[in-house]
Specification:
The structure holds two protein chains of two kinds. By secondary structure, chain A is α/β, with parallel strands linked by helices. Chain A has twelve helices and 17 strands. Among the domains of chain B are: 70 residues, no CATH class; 50 residues. Chain B contains six helices and two strands; from the N terminus they run H-H-H-H-H-E-E-H. By secondary structure, chain B is mainly α.
């Protein structure tokens, strides 16, 4: 079968790899119909996540058709069209039972801090991902969800990560009606976080980024204010001024390790890998939120340390909430929102690329060429 | 900032998930306290461990399922095994893993070559797309690359020449050639050339 093959920082290609096998009684084999490249895949692509091995297949946002099931799979049957949450969750451990499906204790041997994630290095369990024609899906009774009849595949594939992550960013912000919410990052997750902030009753939503075409998109899509931090002396001062010098009630970091905006952070975090990515957005979030406010983090960072003003967190009495999205927990509500037209995820997809051109797709997304917001890879069977 | 007096009717779904009682919200919301019972749940069936799986020393076992992609191998595998002697809280864990990743890239190139496959770096880096969507940028990058490489080569060759002069004691007008040998009006002893060495008696 054809599959994306990581060869080193900023080098990927399409290769023939063996068809995946049932390895566990609860496994399913899925024929992939859509597979996105996520902003967090770029951390792997750039070689920033430890234990990213050459030969691995990335991809944690995908839909597909069930081709084969293990003897203990009861909730799926061959031929079902499914969307597959990016978290691999057993459904039995204390954390899954608490709804912490991103923190499952039975899906990742290599690290205890995070549960298993498809195609996201051995630090997240060493699973090959969905940027391929076929993929092995463990715990098929728990994660994969049958796509409701009539739902567009492009909507379904964004329900595997982007929509739940953006929604949970807003949810973790504990937004109260009338709150001012600042979202750092106008990538797909930031766009969705801005959109979802309204659902919790935000009174004002502001997005900060430096890519003009994305700012224009989010301004229209999420009906919010959007500003380019390169056009201001200091984004923190700008946000204080625009909130009557109080700061925002809630700040959301939807950028993570690839943040631009600070030479120090960029050099130490992205170039020299002396910290777990550039923490510029988080730094700004902590300094822009009001005293007693909430900082919600869904941007992905590496497992080591970051330079953040933790003293200000203490002195301002901030609450920090963060996690990988708990996709399964959120799916029923989010499917409803898509079906009712409250959310329109597929509008984020700007590039539909044949799986064979995966290297070009990564480069376009990484370099923000051709006004790219969200690329989706399509295997030959679905073209 | 309280802006609830505003009209949000133009935003479809405004406030439909607002729930003042949903605080402190996820993830604290659903805490069950079951974790106080320790590692006590009925574990799922164990996936057969028929490949090498490195596991964090912060857990007692291999998780019930695990990925089977790219087991550790070669020099990078040895470094990874070393890394897994340390906890996730230690640089001794993560820094060797980053090193192993870089070593693994070289192993990947060697593996390709051993199979008679010369990696097409241009295509793997997606430069076809760069050429299509940003030809000016690509030309600029290549030009910068050529300039930097040339500068480095020139710098290194000058340093080498300088080093050669310093070590041999040759000056600008004193040269060694294959035809003429060392040409100078002066005569040198070994001690002149290498002052730290003592003359042999």
């Amino acid at each position: 079968m054809l599959a994306m093959n990581y060869r080193g920082p900023q080098r990927v290609r399409i290769d023939h790899k063996p068809y995946p096998k049932i390895e566990h009684p609860q496994d399913a084999i899925i024929r992939v119909t859509r597979s996105c490249i996520c902003g967090s895949d770029l951390h792997l692509y750039n070689g920033n996540v430890p234990d990213t091995r050459v030969g691995m297949t990335f991809g944690h946002e995908f839909t597909g058709v069930v081709e084969e099931i293990g003897p203990d799979v009861e909730k799926l049957k061959v031929g079902d069209q499914v969307l597959v949450p990016f978290n691999i969750s057993c459904g039995k451990c204390h954390f899954c039972k608490q709804g912490l499906y991103g923190n499952c204790h039975e899906s990742n041997s290599q690290a205890t801090a995070v549960g298993g994630i498809f195609g996201y290095s051995h630090t997240a369990g060493g699973y090959d991902g969905g940027q391929a024609e076929y993929v092995r899906v463990p715990y098929a009774n728990v994660g994969p969800t049958v796509i409701p009849p009539g739902m567009d595949l492009d909507d379904a594939v964004l329900l595997t990560d982007v929509v739940p992550t953006g929604y949970q960013a807003a949810e973790m912000g504990g937004i109260q009606p009338g709150d001012t919410v600042v979202v750092f990052g106008a990538g797909p997750v930031g766009i969705m976080a801005a959109k979802c902030s309204w659902l919790f009753g935000a009174g004002r939503v502001i997005v900060i980024d430096h890519v003009d075409y994305r700012l224009e998109f989010v301004r229209n899509y999420a009906q919010c204010e959007a500003y380019n931090f390169k056009e201001m002396d200091d984004p923190v001062v700008f946000l204080k001024r625009t909130t009557d010098w109080m700061g925002a009630d809630v700040c959301i970091d939807a950028v993570g390790a690839e943040a631009a905006g600070s030479a120090l952070q960029t050099i130490t975090g992205r170039k020299l890998l002396l910290q777990a990515g550039s923490a510029t957005a988080l730094h700004w979030a902590i300094n822009s939120v009001k005293k007693g406010g909430i900082v919600s983090i869904v941007g992905v960072y590496g497992p080591t340390d970051n330079l953040v003003p933790i003293g200000n967190v203490v002195n301002k009495g901030l609450t920090i909430r963060a996690n990988q999205a708990s996709v399964k927990r959120l799916l029923p509500r989010l499917i409803e929102h898509v079906q009712n037209g409250v959310l329109n995820p597929k509008a984020l997809i700007t590039h539909r690329v044949p799986l064979e051109d995966v290297a070009d797709a990564y480069h376009i997304f990484s370099e923000k060429l051709d006004n790219c917001i969200k690329p989706v890879l399509i295997p030959s069977s679905k073209r | 900032m309280n802006n609830t007096a505003k009209d949000f009717s133009h935003i479809k779904g405004w406030g439909i998930d607002a729930d003042p009682k949903n605080d402190p919200t996820y993830p604290m919301k659903r805490r069950t306290d079951a974790e106080q019972q320790g590692y006590s749940w009925q574990r799922p069936t164990q996936q057969p461990v028929n490949i090498e799986v490195l596991h964090s020393i912060e857990r007692p076992n291999v998780s019930a399922v695990f990925g089977t992609s790219t087991p550790p191998s070669g020099l990078s595998g040895m470094i990874r095994r070393f890394a897994f002697k340390y906890s996730e809280s230690s640089y001794g864990h993560w820094l060797p893993l980053l090193l192993a990743d870089r070593v693994n890239v070289v192993e990947g190139v060697l593996e390709d070559l051993s199979k008679g496959h010369v990696p097409n770096i241009f295509a793997e880096k997606g430069w076809n797309a760069e050429w299509k969507h940003n030809p000016k940028g690509l030309v600029q990058k290549v030009a910068i690359g050529v300039l930097v490489t040339t500068a480095v080569v020139v710098l290194l060759s000058r340093k080498k020449e300088h080093k050669h002069t310093r070590h041999t004691g040759y000056s600008e007008d004193e040269r060694y050639s294959e035809d003429q040998g060392y040409t100078s009006n002066k005569s040198y002893s070994k001690h002149d050339l290498f002052p730290e060495s003592k003359p042999i008696k």
